[in-house]
């Protein structure tokens, strides 16, 4: 009755159950693993699908169906390549290497074993795996050298196993390493040490991996045979065959046991048993390894159809990828051309826009400048006009003062009937009028030339009222004679006032007073 696994059952339980029954019920174990593989594949769980495929070669190996092991391993490798699962790829290459070693294909065997080791070392280098995970690779290479009867090379890798072994990280039990060590010791003629080591590890194999005792007892028998103890040697060879039959395992290895028994019986002189053992070995060899075997013929012909198809697909994918890259390059070039065209267009538009803005700015700036020039010109014209009006008014005041002065002089010398009090009153009014006229002129001048008057007052606070009058009249371009008439002083007094004004303003002789005051 097949074991039923529910969908909710953990995958670890599936693998453990398959391992538990693979020796007693290999067909049931295979059914369990195949069901798990299909289920994982449907769910897209590639990692566990590969794991299920890697468990199957043990069951196929029990029946010495290496062709199916071979197909399953290449299928697993295809999935591992697709999912880029380097850890699984390393495990698959290890199994392929061991598979080829069974058929003495030494070159292929070490090609795959070393490929696995290289992948593992890369993973250790990147920190994805602990260094102790390399022990399994070294162990498998060591075991392969044992089967090829090259113990010296095997010892090199066995030493690496013990050097890097870590129980918490290594994927192999130390008993397997001790078994390999016992073989190397026996080849070095250290038979008693080898027997002691085999005696030590036998209980562990009985409890945990009884089927592996086929190998243990075979090499144990070899040791006793080298010691010329044919009785014990025959006993251990017989034990190996019993274990193989009981657990239906290592059937291919039983060929070697029968060959060893045949040679042993020849030494003992029991040719009947020797003939029987030799015939048994030949039949098993023909069944499992002869090129006439329908089971193993595809493998021995090394057709590798799956691998060839995989390589063809990879080449096709690579070709498609190259075409895709070329197409992407063309698209990228077109995009760059469009982008460059767009950039050139934007630059041209930007230049045109900038020029328009610049032209507009220049026009506005020129307009503002012209407006300011017009305003300044108008202000100057207005100032000149007002100053002319002011000058005219000042001249009128001069004429008025002269006229009044003339009247005043006449009144002083006249002996008419005008009363003295009235004359004094008129004279007083005329004097007051002269002062008022100057104040009126000052107010009007200040209103028109406010900035000039403020600047003169601020920069030259030590100027007297007479000095300020001279400055105002110079600003109006009055001559010395006109100043004398307006101020009621002599021309010499005007010159004296101008000289004092230069000193107060601290002007050099080379500086023209009229030009300096006009610039204020």
| Helix coverage percent | over 70%
What's the SSE pattern?
Answer: HHHHHHHHHHHHHHHHHHHHHH
Poorly predicted segments = 1-9, 291-304
Query: Treating each run of at least 4 consecutive H or I residues as one helix, how many helices?
Result: 22
Class based on secondary structure composition and strand pairing: mainly alpha
Mean pLDDT: 80
Alpha-carbon distance between the two ends: 125 Å
Shape descriptor reads rod-shaped
Strand content: under 5%
Quaternary structure classification: single chain
- The rounded Rg comes to 63 Å
Give a short account of the largest sheet: none
Q: What is the count of β-strands?
A: 0
Summarize this, please?
The protein has helices at 11-21, 26-42, 46-62, 66-83, 86-102, 106-125, 135-147, 151-164, 174-187, 191-208, 213-226, 230-247, 253-268, 271-288, 297-300, 305-413, 420-448, 450-459, 465-475, 480-487, 491-505, 513-519.
Description:
The protein starts with 10 loop residues before the first helix and ends with a helix. The longest helix has 109 residues, at 305-413. Residues 1-9 and 291-304 have low confidence and may be disordered. It contains 22 helices and no strands. Helix 2 packs antiparallel against helix 3 and helix 3 packs antiparallel against helix 4. With 520 residues, the protein is mainly α. It has helices spanning 11-21, 26-42, 46-62, 66-83, 86-102, 106-125, 135-147, 151-164, 174-187, 191-208, 213-226, 230-247, 253-268, 271-288, 297-300, 305-413, 420-448, 450-459, 465-475, 480-487, 491-505, 513-519.
């Amino acid at each position: 009755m097949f074991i039923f696994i529910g969908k909710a059952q953990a995958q670890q339980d599936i693998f453990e159950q398959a391992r538990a029954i693979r020796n007693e019920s290999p067909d049931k174990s295979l059914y369990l693993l195949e069901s798990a593989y299909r289920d994982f594949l449907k769910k897209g769980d590639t990692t566990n699908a590969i794991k299920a495929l890697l468990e199957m070669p043990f069951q196929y190996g029990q029946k010495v169906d290496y062709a199916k092991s071979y197909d399953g391993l290449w299928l697993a490798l295809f999935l591992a390549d697709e999912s880029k699962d380097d850890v699984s790829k390393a495990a698959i290459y290890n199994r392929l290497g061991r598979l080829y070693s069974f058929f003495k294909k030494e070159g292929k065997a070490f090609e795959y074993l070393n490929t696995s080791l290289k992948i593992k070392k890369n993973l250790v280098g990147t920190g994805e795996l602990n260094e102790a995970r390399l022990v399994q690779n070294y162990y498998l290479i060591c075991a392969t050298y044992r089967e090829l009867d090259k113990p010296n090379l095997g010892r090199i890798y066995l030493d690496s196993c013990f050097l890097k072994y870590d129980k918490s990280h290594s994927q192999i039990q130390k008993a397997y390493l001790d078994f390999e060590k016992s073989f190397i010791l026996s080849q070095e003629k250290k038979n008693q040490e080898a027997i002691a080591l085999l005696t030590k590890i036998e209980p562990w194999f009985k409890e945990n991996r009884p089927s592996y005792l086929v190998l243990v007892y075979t090499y144990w028998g070899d040791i006793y045979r080298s010691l010329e103890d044919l009785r014990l040697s025959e006993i251990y060879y017989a034990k190996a065959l019993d274990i193989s039959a009981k657990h239906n395992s290592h059937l291919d290895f039983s060929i070697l046991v029968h060959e060893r028994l045949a040679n042993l019986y020849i030494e003992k002189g029991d040719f009947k048993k020797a003939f029987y053992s030799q015939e048994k070995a030949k039949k098993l060899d023909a069944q499992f390894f002869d090129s006439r075997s329908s089971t193993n013929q595809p493998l021995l012909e090394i057709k590798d159809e799956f691998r060839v198809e995989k390589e063809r697909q990879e080449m096709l994918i690579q070709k498609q990828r190259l075409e895709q890259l070329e197409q992407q390059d063309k698209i990228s070039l077109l995009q760059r051309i469009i982008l460059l065209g767009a950039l050139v267009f934007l630059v041209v538009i930007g230049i045109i826009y900038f020029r328009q803005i610049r032209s507009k700015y220049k026009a506005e700036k020129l307009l503002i400048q012209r407006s300011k020039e017009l305003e300044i010109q108008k202000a100057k014209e207005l100032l000149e006009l007002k100053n002319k009006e002011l000058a005219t008014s000042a001249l009128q005041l001069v004429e008025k003062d002269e006229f009044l002065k003339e009247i005043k002089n006449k009144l002083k010398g006249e002996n008419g009937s005008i009363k003295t009090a009235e004359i004094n009153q008129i004279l007083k009014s005329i004097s007051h009028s002269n002062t008022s006229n100057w104040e009126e002129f000052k107010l009007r001048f200040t209103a028109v030339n406010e900035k000039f008057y403020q600047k003169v007052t601020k920069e030259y606070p030590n100027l007297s009222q007479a000095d300020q009058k001279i400055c105002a009249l110079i600003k109006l371009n009055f001559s010395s004679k006109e100043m004398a008439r307006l101020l009621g002083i002599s021309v010499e007094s005007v010159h004296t006032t101008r000289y004092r004004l230069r000193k107060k303003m601290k002007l050099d002789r080379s500086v023209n007073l009229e030009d300096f005051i006009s610039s204020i």
